[in-house]
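Hi everyone, sorry if this is the wrong subforum. Our group has a chain we'd like a structural model of before ordering constructs, and none of us has done structure prediction before. Sequence below.
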Amino acid sequence: MYKEKIEKYMNAHTQEMIEDICELCRINSVKMPAEEDMPYGPAVAECLDAALDMAEGYGFEVQDYDGYVGCVDFDTTLPSQLDILAHLDIVPAGEGWQVTKPFEPAVKDGMLYGRGTADDKGPAVAALYAMRAVKELGIPLKKNVRLILGTDEECGSSDIRHYYETEKEAPMTFSPDGQYPVVNVEKGRLEGHFTAEFEPSDALPRLVKIEAGTKVNVVPGKAKATVEGFELSVLEKAAGEVKDKTGIEFQFAPEEAFCEITAVGTGSHASRPEEGNNAITGLLALLCSLSFAPCPQIECLKKTAALMPHGDVNGTTLGVDMEDQVSGRLTLAFSMLTVDKAGLDGQFDSRVSACGNEENVLKVIKSKMADNGLCLLNDSMTPPHLVDADSLLVKTLLSIYERYTGQKGKCLSIGGGTYVHNLKNGVAFGASMPGTENRMHGADEFAVVEELVISAKMFAQAIVELCG
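Answer:
Right subforum, don't worry. Here is the predicted structure as tokens:
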């Protein structure tokens, strides 16, 4: 019902929609230090104001929640039914842009380039145009749809926590900040932080320090250690043997009795550790093969390496390897490590299958680490998120996807978390089609114009069917 009218409307308003997306994408809405009435800085506030002005200009009721979130309502006299949760903040532009400058959006070969075009200003405006189509086509609704425009998705989602302190969740929510067809399962997460202390030793040969990792959610492509008292030839021989087993390259920078060792692997997102080659675990494999003077530091390091050995990306040695049909296999990435003469501080990132919980994951790891002299500081973890595939929301969205794309609709599970992870009945729906690599967070980020248009059509159809 209404499919033909919706398609005709969107086709006629495509250029206007692209121009509105460009207006928002010209604003560098990266989170900055807070100022008065601007919790994420002036640029984010400017972008939120521009989006709300845009929506108000199309006849919608708008509301600003203290600069954290802006909302666009179809009709607040109707009962709440559907929230569409998008965001206007972006990651920094970065380097390497070639097609256009990051904040000068441009269409080329059917793609709209610019920071935020795919993540998530393009989909946000597509959702606004879906509401506009329903309104201007005069399609009657019995329940309200609300577009929620967040401003801190990239840096922790404090915006949404602020919003839900005063507002209730709608009975249904979808976020166009993922992929098609429908993401209804998101793994749980344990950002493990562990420490150890030991008696210092200056006996040679010794490990001076390790400094490795950039962020807990990144498998490191490089890791560095400094050792003292080894001949370079000894280090190079051991490195050759470890390289043959692990694929990790090693670089050496000797200076008198000291030598800095850099392990070079391949970085990846921590939710997909199998796509990388972990430089930390490779570095530990090398260090554990060297003949250091016996000391508590080296003993602790060897136990740590044994718990998270190179190539184990599923927590097998820690005793938490698990898998289920809806979400797949647990992953675990050793991502941060600092060691000096008196202590060790490490972090790992585990994406936990739907069958995982604090009892069979957190407590198991904590116990295993304690048995090896390590203290896991965590007392809780983020539970998995699951919305029933047979729910009205999921079945409706999959049906709409099939009708508008001609492709088979299916539910997806991901290791990363989306904006709806903590919402009882929230899923990700779009706005990236299967097979599209839109360079999200990278240089020359783009959204396919045709995908934005078909997304707006599907969002409008979802509004009609879920709220009509």
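For your construct planning: The mean pLDDT is 96. Residues 190-376 form a domain with the Alpha-Beta Plaits fold (CATH 3.30.70.360).
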